[in-house]
Design goal:
heterodimer; A: MetI-like fold; B: alpha/beta; D-Maltodextrin-Binding Protein, domain 2; 5-stranded mixed beta sheet; 41% helix
Chain lengths: 218, 256
């Protein structure tokens, strides 16, 4: 059970880190895009919220498998059954949980701080890092917490893609699934309670932080 | 729209919904609910179709790993018949009062196959297992699927288990183990003969029976079906020459 806990934590950490690198710039672009194309891309990014994990898992299996484009590119037979495969899957699966709150935060700033920074002759890059990012930190924190918690509990995509290898792809929720099927309800109960407790704390911290930031802004 | 008209429309919508539900219900109410071990998926579909044709009784099949079904049945799942992939679980269900005493019988004996979707990949002796050439060997979860257990027994009997252990990927049922192999994600896998016998694709090694304990697959009448004649008729149908011929056509051995 502990290797699975460690693996899930590792997967959630790596995924959240990658999502910060990918999701925040993407959220920035989408926050400033006004046309149809911007909304279409935003809708595409938001899809994993409503799509069943089996649909995502199915496409990932095609994408990462031996007949897909990615594995041969890396000189591998398949990316299924690997930690790398799970990371790719998790980044796609949790993408909206990072992009959505950060995009909203950027939108909430309005154009004023950005234009002020540019008027003071800050370069766009400088303005992004020293004005936009700090002002959107509430949304970024929400994105981090949601992405991390969402990936930590990931099940469907991993079941479709992982092959249940202890230490490599056997994540926490898969252990719970197997435990229930094997009538090992003691361990399943302990893991489930841990997961429920952690998720509650994560969401609570998020709400408290949001409340505090709203007060600071006022 | 005046409020009265809205109310009338809502009432009409609610009424249609109820009518739809009631209309759909009778078709299900009489149907025999059967939990089928994943390896028996294709023959069960064929058996159910010909049974329905003969008797007019409807059958609803659910497929999954035997272990998963066992857990669900102990938790009150409303299945009337369980076609397990082993003999132990039906016995335990009877002992627990969840199955009808004396209703268990062996409907098929399963055969294990080492299979690859690539023609010429698996040799006729299974020597590929000790070649170290493959990255992924797919098996069913040995804890919940008897075919997975048989696969592990085979690997241990061949003395290659420790060597291939790092390559093993596990499907939650034999169906997923087959899919991992058929999709090419795993180069080879231990599957049920019934899954590959009809397609005749790829390459295979029929694992000699001496390498693993016989996969004796037992059926059992569950308590929710104890007074259902249609459920008893289906179990009786499984013993008819016609049904046995269908079962054998998928590579299973049956009692003489």
């Amino acid at each position: 059970m502990w290797p699975a806990v460690a693996l899930s934590l590792e997967l959630a950490t790596v995924t959240t880190f990658l999502l910060l690198l990918l999701g925040v710039p993407l959220a920035w672009v989408l926050a400033r895009a006004n046309g149809f194309l911007g909304e279409a891309v935003a809708a595409l990014v938001a899809l994993p919220i409503v799509l069943p994990p089996t649909v995502i898992g199915f496409y990932l299996l095609l994408l990462l498998g031996p007949h897909g484009p990615i594995a041969p590119l890396l000189g591998l037979r398949t990316l299924a059954f690997s930690f790398t495969g799970l990371v790719i899957g998790s980044v796609i699966y949790s993408l909206p949980f990072m992009v959505q709150p950060v995009r909203n935060a950027f939108r909430g700033l309005g154009p004023a701080p950005w234009e002020a920074a540019l008027t003071l002759r800050a370069s766009p890059l400088d303005a992004f890092f020293s004005v936009a990012l700090p002002l959107a930190q509430g949304g970024i924190l929400t994105g981090i917490i949601l992405s991390f918690a969402h990936t930590l509990g990931e099940f469907g995509v991993v079941l479709m893609l992982g092959g249940d290898i202890p230490g490599r792809t056997e994540v926490l929720s898969i252990v719970i699934f197997n435990d229930v099927d094997n009538l090992q309800w003691g361990e399943a109960g302990a893991l489930a309670a841990g997961m429920a407790g952690f998720s509650f704390l994560a969401v609570l911290v998020m709400f408290l932080a949001e409340k505090r930031m709203a007060r600071l802004r006022a | 729209m005046p409020p009265k008209q809205i109310t009338r429309r809502l009432a009409l919508a609610a009424f249609s919904a109820v009518a739809l539900f009631l209309g759909a219900a009778p078709a299900r109410a009489g149907a025999v609910a059967i939990a089928v071990a994943a390896n028996f998926t294709d023959p069960a579909k064929q058996l159910a179709a010909s049974y329905q044709l003969k008797t007019g009784n409807a059958v609803v099949l659910s497929f999954g790993a035997s272990g998963g079904f066992y857990t669900q049945i102990t938790q009150g799942a409303p299945f009337e018949i369980f076609l397990s992939a082993d003999a132990a679980r039906p016995k335990k269900l009877v002992a627990a009062g969840l199955g009808v005493t004396g209703s268990e019988f062996t409907y098929a004996t399963g055969k294990l196959v080492l299979w690859s979707a690539t023609p010429g990949y698996v040799d006729s002796q299974g020597k590929i297992l000790s070649s170290g050439k493959f990255k992924h060997l797919s098996i069913a979860n040995p804890k919940t699927a008897p075919y997975g257990e048989a696969a592990v027994e085979t690997l241990k009997a061949l003395d290659v288990y420790d060597a291939v252990a790092p390559t093993i990927v596990t499907g939650e049922s034999i169906t997923q183990a087959y899919q991992f192999t058929a999709s090419g994600n795993a180069e080879l896998g231990f599957v049920a003969l019934s899954q590959v016998i009809k397609a005749k694709k790829g390459s295979q090694w029929l694992v000699p029976q001496k390498l693993y304990k016989p996969i004796t697959q037992d059926a059992v009448l569950l308590t929710p079906g104890k007074d259902d004649q249609a459920a008893k008729d289906f179990l009786a149908y499984l013993k008819t020459p016609e049904a046995l011929a269908i079962i054998r056509s998928y590579g299973y051995a049956t009692a003489p």
